[in-house]
Structure formats: structure tokens, C-alpha cells
Task: inverse folding
């Protein structure tokens, strides 16, 4: 029973990722449908686990991963071309909130860097969505979550010293810098902060090339 649930969650996730990589809004819509199916299976899996009184870490991870991937898929819709983007962004935030809740519980229980990385990816995704909504009052929320992601990625580099982690850190610096260009601090502080953040991102990219 558990193996079948896990395989279905993973297969829907892989199919959604394939659609996302094809690009275009039509394929993003297909990706969202795949992740929605993944989430439905994940919720059923969660109910199954509770009935079995087996709230294993693997089970929690499967459900949490499904929520994060669905939030990521919804957040990938082009806000300038798709009139449904704002609606999808709001649903994405709800998905990410569920993912954060679960990954926070898992990371607190295990203290494993791999689980904390998933939490950091959620923070980054939430920051990106708040930025994409392009409402002035939400840029502060975007900065808050980009900063959370940045700090956690920096902490995890001591344990997960990989190109993926450096790339995630660079994306967090870039996202935070973009927020400051949208809602800048007072001059002359603005230029220093933005240049410093973009400069740190550039150094990481140069290191990865």
C-alpha cells in the first residue's frame, strides 16, 4: 500500500517537472494539474498513514514534497501573460504554507541538513511568489522570505557544500536585491545594499562556471 502511494506521488511529480521544462503557459498548466494530482494522492497517503498509525518520516516527507512542488509549479506561471496568475499565486502560497509547516516539523525532529534544505527552498519559493504578485505592500514580505532562505542556505553550506546549494544561495541574493530595487531604502544606503547583494551573487556564479 505505502509503496504504491509513494510511486504515484513521485510519478506525478516527475511528469509535472517534465512539463515545466518544456516551457510555455500551456505546459505550466499541465504541470500544475500533475502536481495537483500528486497533492491529492499525498493527502490520501497522509490519511492512509494515520489510519495505520504510521506517521513515518518518509510519509511526512512525501506529503511535504508534494505541497512544495505544487507551489513551485503554480508559481511558475507567467504573471504577464496569464490572467489567472494571481489566482494561481494565491493557491501556491497556500501550498507552500502547508509545505513549510510539515518541513519545519520534520527538520526540528531530525535536524538533518537535507530536510532543512527543503525548508529553505520553501522560503525561497514564497519570496519569489510575493515578488511576482507585484503589489507594493508585498515586497516587504518577499524580502522577509528571501532573507530567511538566504540565512538558512548559508548555514547549510557547512554541511551540504554542493554546487546546488551555492546556486540556491546566489538566487536568494539576487531575489533580495530585486526587492530592494522595487522598494528601496533611503539613499545613499540603497545603492550600497543592491550592489553588495548582486556582487555576492555574481561571485558565486563565477565560482560555479
Result:
Amino acid at each position: 500500500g505505502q509503496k504504491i502511494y509513494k510511486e504515484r506521488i513521485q510519478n506525478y511529480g516527475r511528469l509535472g517537472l517534465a512539463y515545466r521544462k518544456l516551457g510555455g503557459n500551456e505546459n505550466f498548466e499541465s504541470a500544475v494539474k500533475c502536481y495537483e494530482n500528486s497533492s491529492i494522492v499525498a493527502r490520501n497517503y497522509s490519511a492512509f498513514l494515520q489510519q495505520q498509525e504510521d506517521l513515518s518520516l518518509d510519509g511526512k516527507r512525501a506529503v511535504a514534497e508534494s505541497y512544495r512542488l505544487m507551489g513551485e509549479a503554480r508559481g511558475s506561471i507567467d504573471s504577464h501573460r496569464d490572467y489567472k496568475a494571481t489566482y494561481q499565486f494565491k493557491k501556491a502560497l497556500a501550498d507552500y504554507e502547508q509545505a513549510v509547516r510539515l518541513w519545519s516539523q520534520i527538520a526540528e525532529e531530525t535536524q538533518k541538513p537535507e530536510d532543512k534544505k527543503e525548508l529553505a527552498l520553501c522560503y525561497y519559493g514564497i519570496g519569489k511568489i510575493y515578488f511576482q504578485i507585484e503589489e507594493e505592500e508585498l515586497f516587504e514580505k518577499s524580502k522577509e522570505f528571501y532573507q530567511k532562505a538566504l540565512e538558512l542556505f548559508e548555514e547549510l553550506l557547512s554541511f551540504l557544500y554542493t554546487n546546488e546549494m551555492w546556486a540556491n544561495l546566489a538566487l536568494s541574493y539576487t531575489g533580495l536585491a530585486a526587492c530592494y530595487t522595487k522598494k528601496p531604502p533611503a539613499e545613499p544606503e540603497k545603492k550600497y545594499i543592491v550592489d553588495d547583494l548582486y556582487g555576492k551573487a555574481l561571485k558565486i556564479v563565477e565560482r560555479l562556471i
Notes: The mean pLDDT is 82. Helices lie at 2-22, 25-51, 57-75, 85-110, 113-133, 139-156, 163-182, 189-208. The CA atoms of residues 9 and 41 lie 6 Å apart. DSSP finds eight helices and no strands in the chain.
